[in-house]
């Protein structure tokens, strides 16, 4: 999503093969992920000579929690930290109170961070994601 946020526009789509090559992700695996994002209305997919993918909305309007929800769901924000089946506020595991605070902080972070700010932050620092903007050599 970061890569697409930086390399696509309303006039330009990013091809699956470009993303797979630049991000070193197997094409078949990436295709499944991108289709999930299309089904969840975070991406637009176009076929044909100018086909590829682009964001469905401006990157400032897409939050990290939307991406997580589309790919993995939001269970991470509800599950027990040590995977007790019946852990909740009434029947707590040994780390329930501390882990609940952590989950709430993480949810807040994911709700606040947009693709725009995350992509900008990644461009400023060393990142495991190759986010070089078109026309930049660094």
Element order, helices and strands? HHHEEHHH
Mean pLDDT: 88
Rounded to an integer in angstroms, the radius of gyration calculated over CA atoms is: 18 Å
Described by its quaternary structure, the protein is: single chain
Taking the alpha carbons of the first and last residues, their distance comes to 20 Å
Could you tell me the number of beta strands? 2
Percent range for β-strand residues: 5-15%
Unreliable residue stretches: none
What is the CATH architecture assignment of the domain at 1-58? Answer: Orthogonal Bundle
Task: Lay out the secondary structure.
Blueprint: H1 2-7, H2 16-23, H3 27-39, E1 43-46, E2 52-55, H4 64-71, H5 96-112, H6 115-124
Helix pairs in contact: 4-5
Quick summary:
With 138 residues, the protein is mainly alpha-helical. It contains six helices and two strands, in the order αααββααα.
